[in-house]
Amino acid sequence: MNDSRLILNGESHQMLPTQFPGVYLSHCEYNGEEIESKFQGSFDFQYLSIYLPTTYCEIIIDDSKWQAPIMPDYPHHNEQQKLQTVMFAGATLIQALRLIGFNQFISPCILKNGTISLAKNCEESSIELFPHQGFVIPMPPPVGNKTNLSEEDYNWLLYAHSVLYNLSYETDLTPVFSAIDYCYQDMPARAKMTIIWAAIEHLVKPNPEKIRFGIRSRSAMLIGRTDEEIQLLYKQIGNLYGKRSAATHGRKFTYNKGLEINLLENQRLVEDLESLSSSYKLLCEILIKIIDRESMYSELELQKLEDEFQEKFPQ
Q1: The domain containing residue 234 runs over which residues?
Q2: What's the rounded Cα separation, in Å, for the pair 41 and 47?
Q3: Which of 74, 175, 218, 262 has its CA 20 to 30 A from that of 291?
Q4: Rounded (10°) CA dihedral 164, 168, 170, 174
């Protein structure tokens, strides 16, 4: 039942603001109102109606607040540039929500000139629909999920959204965002594993001559807090990288001996699925580390981490 409301510290909310001006999380619930005529496209409502029965929250963006001194250039942008900014604001909020485990959702489209909750009050044929992707089957989240936001979650969400938005303009986070998005879609586990590790490699930038060692040492140094933890992470990341290699190079990965085989009896399949989940967690932990420092790691900083690892653990 909690899925039908925004729950913050056990209390239900109709709307929750973000630090980003004009951007809100808002409760919405479609109860069969006649809103098909409010859309411009002939099949827009049919596309959206697939998702409406299980939609209880939408991101509302009011860009009338995007002006000086906060965003002085925005009012002068053309429609395509404005749409891109709106997509950045929404996408970075979605990624921040997923990082704190609030991930029981998909984002099938953008509605321009209207919202689900206010559609019945909009003018006829005024709402434009911009699909994010074709119809997808919502998949179980790769890690545990939450239906309630704590105060700590909410405060970090506000902070992370702002940082991710700024980082998206300073550097290319497309490989990372794409990998996280694909993890929630119905696609082969082999493909998910490959894309996750491409995103990890994008963040830690290993030397081409020492890719495996570079990813292991740099990742362990980034997220490890003690020498013992760094050594353990180095070993665990090495095992995960081995699974990544199996997925990428066509060896057996998430191979199922048959539908009649009990999952617990197929140990290889269980291990591969666990490695996929752990790889996703690793990617998220590295991204969270970057958010907390509010900047990407430079190649020089990452090389220093690798050198420091070799000095600490020459074996």
Answers
A1: 177-312
A2: 10
A3: 74
A4: 130
Which strand (E) or helix (H) includes residue 57? strand 57-61
For residue range 150-203, list pLDDT tens digits in order.
999 999 999 999 999 999 888 999 999 999 988 888 788 899 999 999 999 999
pTM: 0.89
Domain annotation covers residue 168: no
Which spans in the chain are helix H?
44-49, 79-99, 151-170, 174-182, 189-204, 211-223, 227-248, 267-293, 299-312
- Tell me: do 222 and 260 sit in the same domain: yes
Q: Smallest Cα–Cα separation from 128: which of 47, 50, 67, 71?
A: 47
Angle at 294 between CA 311 and CA 213, to 5 degrees: 30
Do residue 293 and residue 228 come from a single domain?
yes
Q: 155 near 17, Cβ under 8 Å?
A: no
Question: Is 6 found in the same domain as 149?
Answer: yes
